[in-house]
Amino acid sequence: MRPAADVVPDGIDRLTLLLESTGEGVFGIDLDGRCTFVNRAGAQMLGWRTEEVLGRNMHALIHHSRPDGAHYPECECPIFNAFRRGLPCRIDDEVLWRADGSAFSAEYSSYPILDGGEVRGAVVTFVDISERKAAQALLQRTNDELERRVAERTRELRELANHLEAVRETERKRIAREIHDELGSLLVALKMDVNWMERRVGRRDEASRNELAAKCQRMGGLIDTAVDKVGRIITDLRPSILDHQGLWAALEWQAQEWLQGAADEIDGSVQLHVSAGVAPPEGGLAIAVFRIFQEVLSNVARHAQAKHVTIRLDVDAPPDPVLYLEVRDDGIGTTPAVLDDARSYGVMGMRERAAHFGGRVVIDSAPGFGTVVRLMMPLGGP
């Protein structure tokens, strides 16, 4: 059997061989921060010969400055804190400095060396992660560029959607005006002619007179129905109250009309408060708010199965008025997944309309607990 004393040099040799064979840089420091050993990979990475590193203060030699060149105080050094404060570390956002004054991105770890329970120094492993950092930076730049392009394309699509909506509104207004001016006038004239005929049937015999009178009455009823339907079509295309009396009156009128139409199934209330001095918005913003309100009411009628609906409009005072529109129902509710589904075109349309003018639509709902839709719209425009 070999003497026990011979085992130590053999163990050291094997440890040295292990350190020299690894691709990571490894060095040890004593309690003064001076290098006690460094492997070949570490010395080559740092650009020093082994004998030039041994005994040197490693912070002053390779860790003296931050990535931007600013001084790195030794008291803040995580490598030294491993034995001074008992704080092991693993860092990947700093640099180490080479003998030629250049720096490289490094990932390093520092752990205290213990001997009989006492701290004798620290062992540090490090690797050059410059390529990894360059790849991450390239990936980040690529992601930033992609996000920029997506944001730009989204903005373009929103502008296109708003333009198309403006074109549709213009076309609705034109059709509504033509229906009112031409078809409406024609029906009224026809109604007057029928009345004229009815007043003159008295010149015929009684049987013919009664038959002709009945016919005229039926024609008059049909014309009245046609006039009502034309009026409803005009209102759906472009409510004249929106142009003549403004958004506040249009919203109140729409709420009352909707509640009156749903009176057999839904009980409701309307509350409106507009601060003094706030003029109703015009143009695209007013149309957007009105169409969003119509869509909300339409969704309640089609899907909510509600018994009670509360409609509330509040408009802040100048100089930065904000419109708050809330529609609350006690219906069956729905899940967030349904509201966020890409095929929920009505919800998506409301959100896009609001976003174009700097507003937002928030929907709170849960199965069995009804739904609350809130529109918040700054009235200064986009």
TrEMBL record:
UniProt keyword Ribosomal protein present: no
Domain Histidine kinase: 291-381
Keywords: Coiled coil, Kinase, Transferase, Two-component regulatory system
Coiled-coil boundaries: 136-170
PAS domain segment(s): 11-63
Gene3D superfamilies: 1.20.5.1930, Histidine kinase-like ATPase, C-terminal domain (3.30.565.10), PAS domain (3.30.450.20)
InterPro entries registered for this protein in UniProt: HATPase_C_sf, HATPase_dom, His_kinase_dom, PAS, PAS-assoc_C, PAS-like_dom_sf, PAS_fold, Sensor_HK_TwoCompSys
PAC domain span: 90-141
CDD domains, per the entry: HATPase_UhpB-NarQ-NarX-like, PAS
Any one GO molecular-function label of the UniProt entry: kinase activity
TM regions (residue ranges): none
Family annotation (NCBIfam families): sensory_box
PANTHER family: NITRATE/NITRITE SENSOR PROTEIN NARX-RELATED, OXYGEN SENSOR HISTIDINE KINASE NREB
Protein name: PAS domain-containing sensor histidine kinase
